Amino acid sequence: MTMILPHIKQIKPYVSGIQPPTGNDVIKLNLNEHPYAPSPNVLNVFRTIKEESLRRYPNSQCDELRRALARKYDVKKEQTFCGNGSSEIISLLFTVFLDRGHRIAIPDPSFALYYSMAAVHQVECLKIPVRYNFTIDTDALITAEAKAIVLVNPNAPTGLLLPPQEVERIAKHFSGLVIVDEAYIDFAEADSSIVPLIKKYKNLVVVRTFSKAYSLCGVRVGYCFADEALISALEKGKNLYNVNFISQQLALAALLDEKHLKTTTDAVKRTRDDFIKNIRKLGFNVIQSQTNFVLCSPPAHLGKDRARKLYNQLLERNIYVRYFEDKLLYDKLRISIGTEEEMKILYDYLKKLMESATFNNS
Ligand SMILES: *Cc1c(COP(=O)(O)O)cnc(C)c1O
């Protein structure tokens, strides 16, 4: 297949978590999906969609949704942009702002999609290792020789939040593009977002998504905030009708139900904090998460291969979590936060496994 470019051939495909067949006995905690339904307004709008709007091209600029985002975040509509999931926006950022041979600085570990996008665009990744306690070395990022810095905040898969003052320090002292991915920010403590700073720093892009906190993974809408000049560059690079009509309407309905967002994220945060407390009692080492997932390491006495073994044990019980083959993560599992009931079932099973001789000796 000589028509495939050599640098594309070399790329290892981005591997996403398994999407198992849904059934009553499956507990799916592997893709950081929301355990609760989106706002009931979303389904109401879905049911009223007219045949004509399926026949017509959608609004190519997502005007209505962007106006609503601008209102909510007190920015101008021209400082907002919508994409087919934030994945599309991430890809577009590379298309528009980064060229072959450019370099980005990004903490390691972080969201793997950035590494694969860089490879597709022949952009070099300068991976800045996190410290032993998983905190991010802000100064190493700022002083990196790079065109852009990528910061997922709170970070994935660690779940740790970099305080907004530190993020601002990056935007202030780094002269290139600063991409801050706030996919999980609604699960973090209050006032952690740096969206308001896009008015002050012309090099800052804040990427968000409806997938996680709004429970709309399947609808595929992401958005971002930045200075007007950066946004108009994104508009030039995007697909003409990048967000379909149905998705624009459903995202808008979700956005307007602020009460639902608060109730459901509060529930997830409560369940998360309880789960962390509980598995710490079982001897797990857990990072204090500010997201809807936890990164944890089973007790060390279970051996080097403990995370993979536990992953397989859980699979046998139809409990799906995430295991990464990676030198920094091989002894850890990433567990998305499900409903209170699901986390109780998981906890009870983990407790039983920790007490059972077969797991300890195998
Ligand atoms: C899930 C996730 C995304 C992708 O979101 P989509 O909007 O569904 O494409 C982006 N960034 C991070 C860090 C994520 O975890």
Automatic annotation (TrEMBL):
It is an enzyme of class 2 (transferase). The keyword Amino-acid biosynthesis applies. PROSITE patterns: AA_TRANSFER_CLASS_2 (PS00599). Its EC number is 2.6.1.9. Pathway: Amino-acid biosynthesis; L-histidine biosynthesis; L-histidine from 5-phospho-alpha-D-ribose 1-diphosphate: step 7/9. Pfam families: Aminotran_1_2. The modification N6-(pyridoxal phosphate)lysine is found at residue 212. One of its GO terms (molecular function) is histidinol-phosphate transaminase activity. InterPro entries: Aminotrans_II_pyridoxalP_BS, Aminotransferase_I/II_large, HisP_aminotrans, HistidinolP_aminotransfase, PyrdxlP-dep_Trfase, PyrdxlP-dep_Trfase_major, PyrdxlP-dep_Trfase_small. Belongs to the class-II pyridoxal-phosphate-dependent aminotransferase family. Histidinol-phosphate aminotransferase subfamily. NCBIfam families: hisC. This is Histidinol-phosphate aminotransferase. The lineage of its organism: Bacteria, Bacillati, Bacillota, Bacilli, Bacillales.
